[in-house]
Every structure is written in C-alpha cells, then in structure tokens.
Write a structure and sequence with these properties.
The chain has 252 residues and is an alpha/beta fold. It has a single domain, classed as Glycoside hydrolase/deacetylase (TIM Barrel, Alpha-Beta Barrel), CATH 3.20.20.370. It has 8 helices and 12 strands. The strands form 3 sheets. Strands 1, 4, 5, 6, 7, 8, 11 and 12 form an 8-stranded parallel sheet that branches. Helix 2 crosses helix 3 and helix 7 runs parallel beside helix 8. The radius of gyration is 17 Å and the shape is globular.
Length: 252
Amino acid sequence: MSAIDLNADLGEGFGRWRLTDDEQLLSVVTSANVACGFHAGDAVTMRRVCELAAERRVTIGAQVSYRDLAGFGRRAMDVPPAELAAEVAYQIGALEVFARAAGSRVAYVKPHGALYNRVVHDERQARAVIDGVLLADATLPVLGLPGSRLLELAARAGLPAVTEAFADRAYTEEGTLVPRGEDGAVLTDPEAVVERSVSLARSGTVTARSGRPIEVRARSLCLHGDTPGAVELARRVRARLESAGVRVEAFA
C-alpha cells in the first residue's frame, strides 16, 4: 500500500482579509504550509492557524517567500543571498513561536510562489534558502519539486529532502510547472484533478501538457487552498485516494 501526504497553503490572509478556508481545509489535509507574513499572513493569522493545526494534529510547515505582500509572492525578485537567507530564517522563527505556543512545532519548510519556481534552477537563490533553513534549524525537512536545485542542496547539507507534486498544475516534459501566466497552467476540472492525484500517488506519473507521460515521484501532494471550491475538491481527493488503497499521512 502506498502512502502520501496532503499539504495545502494556509493562513493566506492579512488583517480582516482572508483568502483560504483554513478551518475546513485543516479537517482534510495532513500538512499545513503556513504563510509567514512575507507574501501573506500576519501575527494573529499565524497564531490562529497554528492553534487550529495543533488541535487537529496537522503538521505545521513554514511557507517562506520573497518579501512581496502586494504581489502575493508571485513576482520575480533578485534578493541578495545573505539577505534572502536571513529573511528565510526570520520567517521560520516567527512561525515557530506560534507553533510552540500551540503545543506543536515547525516541522518542515516550503518556499512559495516565485521563490519556489526560482530555486528549481537557480543555485544561488536555492543555496540562500538552504542557508536560511540551517540558520533556523539544521534538522528541518525541505519540501520542493523533484530534481530541483533546492532539494539537491538540501540533501548535500544533511537536510531531509521531500519531493512534492501538484494535482492541479500543468507540467512541462522536463517535470517543471507550467508558469501561471500561460494558458492551461492551472487545471480547473475537478474530476481531472482527482484522477491525477490517484495517478501521482499510485504510479508516480502525470501527463505533461504535451500529452507525454512523465515520472513525478512525490511523497507529498499539494492542494491549493486559494482556488474556488478548494475545500470540496480536497475532500474528494482524499476520499478517492483512500478508496484506492492509498494511506494519507504526514511525512514529518
């Protein structure tokens, strides 16, 4: 029997504005990528999500980002490596305070948005992220795209490198994500997302945008919380996985 983790980006609000249905998603997922204030989130939101996650025994992860509230962390930025490393450590440390207060801890790190895509190929930015993780906690697993420079450098540094796949994103033949600005980058058919989730969990394969099947071996599956109908879709994905004999459990 295969096993997979279900993660979702949570705490993506600011002040009175909320983007994700954190409470409902936390009843489905096994890991929560909590925004740490740089692309979304604030102190009150971070504390609330950590408390909810701890209550439901959901693993807490720090979703670190470029400092880009206005662009939701999805704009390309050139941040000096030393600065980026410090900002990654800062975000992890801030979330750790609230996780500990809730009786839990930060158990892994995942980059967000433009930073996530950048560290697939950019060694300097990937190394800066790893340096930031090491500064905060030299035992933390790093979640990222299979074959990325980020995971390669994480493994070299002695950090657990955890592979991730996306059920609702289009893939290139190289195994990278199709940029969001391109047509068809995000899958909108719920049944297609559900079927892809099962395929990823059971066979480690996905169909690229070109129509060619590619291998994507992943321990964790991301379910985006900022898409319409995200909660119901997440429930369908989990139910279908379990009915297919896949154990749904956190990796950390």
